[in-house]
Specification:
Blueprint lengths: L8 E8 L2 E5 L5 E6 L11 E6 L6 E7 L5 E5 L4 E6 L3 E7 L6 H14 L3 E6 L6 H13 L3 E4 L6 H12 L3 E5 L6 H8 L3 H12 L10 E4 L7 E4 L21 H7 L16 H7 L5 H16 L3
Parallel strand pairs: 3-5, 8-9, 8-11, 9-10, 11-13
Antiparallel strand pairs: 1-2, 1-4, 2-3, 4-5, 6-7, 12-13
């Protein structure tokens, strides 16, 4: 069967199981399946595909282009990929409900490991609890992470004005637990998002709402700015990280790890440890050190 040179390259914009929605350079979308039993595609992948039947509207994915990056989490049992070829990650937390600093840290470690810049977004700053949330995020600002403060529901126009320049010309994944305002952010920036979700659900024939999967939205007619919604999560495994890599992926620890007496210092008990000295002098917060020790213990335990 002859292949179309114009339509053989596409962008994966949604997926469920072994069904994927692939968008062509002209903006046409069609359902594709990977060739063979293995399914390695994720949203954001550039793929080469061909029609299964001449003139049909379904295709087969032949191969995946080399990725610039891939954000994923990995526990003892499985690996869960979020998206590929990202320019940045928006990690969304809220003044209410109280966010987990461990989950936040794990997301940022995964982004550092994948080489993806991350920006923090604090939502619901119109609530009284925003002061406490802002204080908990202060160490992250000190590490160099940018922090956007938004009230997505209370002040939508202001939020849109803050987000638009940050998202322009980039492929952005929005990550965060349930209740933080992720859907509100998507619907604010992509007014037709709900309609698109319905269309994708029907195309995938998944029998379930596709907010349980990752989905790509365009923010502009030129299709230069992509916003990617992701499913919520309760746990964020980091088994893809080696224990000795961990300090280099945490900016506050990384700053002081080079001052240790021993090159292979674990920063847990060795004398002359620069990280623990920084902890004692208030340059690293107790909560961040506790999170480091917790993750290090999990990664070390997984080796045995």
């Amino acid at each position: 069967m002859a292949r179309s040179t114009e339509l053989d390259l596409g962008l994966v914009v949604a997926g469920h199981g072994r069904h994927y929605i692939v968008e062509t350079p002209e903006g046409r979308r069609l359902t594709c399946h990977p060739r063979g039993k293995k399914s390695d595609c994720v949203v954001g992948d550039r793929v080469h595909w061909q029609l299964t039947t001449a003139g049909g509207d379904e295709g087969v994915i032949e191969r995946i282009e080399t990725r610039r990056n891939l954000l994923y989490r990995q526990d003892e049992w499985r690996t869960k990929s979020f998206a590929a070829n990202l320019d940045q990650l928006l990690v969304l937390v809220a003044a209410e409900p109280v966010f987990s600093e461990s989950q936040l840290s794990r997301s940022l470690i995964a982004a550092e490991h994948a080489g993806i810049p991350a920006c923090l977004v604090l939502n619901k700053v119109d609530l009284p609890q925003a002061t406490a949330a802002r204080e908990r995020l202060a160490p992250y600002r000190a590490m160099g992470y940018e922090l956007l403060e938004l009230a997505l529901k209370a002040r939508p126009d202001e939020a849109r004005a803050q987000l638009a320049p940050r998202l322009e010309g980039r492929s952005t994944l929005v990550l965060g637990p349930s209740g933080t305002g992720k859907s509100t952010l998507i619907n604010l920036m992509v007014p037709e998002a709900r309609a698109q979700v319905g269309e994708v659900s029907q195309a995938l024939n998944s029998g379930r709402h596709t907010t349980t999967t990752t989905q790509w939205y365009w923010l502009d007619a030129e299709r230069r700015s992509g916003l990617i919604d992701s499913p919520g999560f309760q746990e964020f495994g980091l088994r893809q990280v080696e224990a000795q890599q961990l300090p280099a992926l945490m900016p506050d620890l990384r700053e002081h790890a080079g001052q240790c007496r021993f090159y292979n210092c674990t920063h847990l008990h060795e004398p002359g440890c620069g990280v623990r000295a920084a902890l004692e002098h208030g340059q690293i917060t107790p909560s961040r050190y506790r999170i480091y020790a917790e993750i290090h213990e999990q990664l070390t335990r997984s080796l045995y």
